[in-house]
Design goal:
Elements (H helix, E strand, L loop, with lengths): L3 E5 L4 H12 L4 E5 L2 H15 L3 E5 L7 H11 L4 E6 L14 H29 L2 E6 L12 H20 L5 E7 L6 H5 L14 H14 L3 E3 L2 H10 L5 H12 L1
Length: 256
């Protein structure tokens, strides 16, 4: 296998589109998600259309040993990962004190712990080889606190901070780290997070559009990409000057 991209959350949404874009460039893949049947269907599609090699790993990344097991399986198969797409993640709407702790803990395990451990395991080899690209799927949610999605917004703030810090550490090594920060996207995320009926998802972008912006930014070695111009202007130019309570109430209303 060559130019291998490891993609988590590859069975649907942005992850599936990232896999398609990678395969269109004749680059091989390791696709990871819980749902083996969906992964197998994607494998057959990509190998049939593009002549690439695709390895399927059905794994629940919230399990404590998942990242280690993935790394060891690929190491044992002599598969070198040149592109790491930490894409898997989910959210959930509600008052923090009323939400189920098991769900919130799983969100932290997936959005933060799995992403961090996979990066920690695969990054040393990239640095040693002097090449590699990492794309962490974050969110515009990472630039502000999020009433009614307190934990989700906080996990994405972590992803933004972590991605930029590591990118600085490996600067000039041949390895780059990019944070993909989309707004609302038409994926299973909205349904899982119980947000399909909110203002945020009224004009949601397609997974393909989002994946293309992320892939392009990763190839260019950018620190981050905010996929919506209007949101970028708001985040960089307006939100820093809005009183905190006013901003919090705005976000809460959008998610209600």
């Amino acid at each position: 296998m060559q130019y291998v991209g490891l993609i988590t959350g590859a069975s649907s949404g942005i992850g599936k589109e990232l896999a398609r874009i990678h395969a269109e460039r004749k680059r091989d893949l390791v696709i990871v998600a819980r749902r083996k049947e969906e992964l197998q269907e994607l494998k057959e599609e990509l190998e049939g259309k593009h002549g690439v090699t695709v390895k399927v790993i059905a794994k629940d990344l919230t399990a404590p040993a998942a990242a280690k097991e993935i790394f060891q399986e690929l190491e044992g198969a002599n598969i070198t990962v040149d592109y790491l797409f930490n894409n898997a993640g989910f959210g959930g709407r509600g008052l923090f004190h009323e939400q189920d702790w098991g769900m919130l803990n799983g969100m932290i395990d997936l959005n933060v712990t799995a992403l961090t451990e996979l990066t920690h395991r695969f990054l040393p080899g990239m640095v040693q080889r002097g090449r590699g690209k990492i794309l962490n799927t974050s969110s515009t949610a990472g630039f502000m606190p999020g009433p009614l999605q307190a934990v989700y917004f906080a996990t994405k703030a972590y992803v933004n901070s972590f991605s930029q810090a590591v990118a600085s550490e490996v600067e000039n090594s041949g390895v780059t780290v990019t944070a993909l920060c989309p707004g609302a996207v038409k994926t299973e995320f909205g349904e899982v997070a119980d947000m399909d009926d909110t203002d945020m998802f009224e004009n949601a972008r397609s997974p393909r559009y989002t994946a293309e912006r992320g892939y392009e930014a990763m190839e260019a070695g950018k620190l981050e990409v905010i996929t919506e111009t209007g949101l970028k202007v708001m985040i960089k130019g307006a939100i820093p000057f809005i009183p905190k309570r006013v901003g919090l109430n705005m976000i809460k209303k959008m998610q209600s």
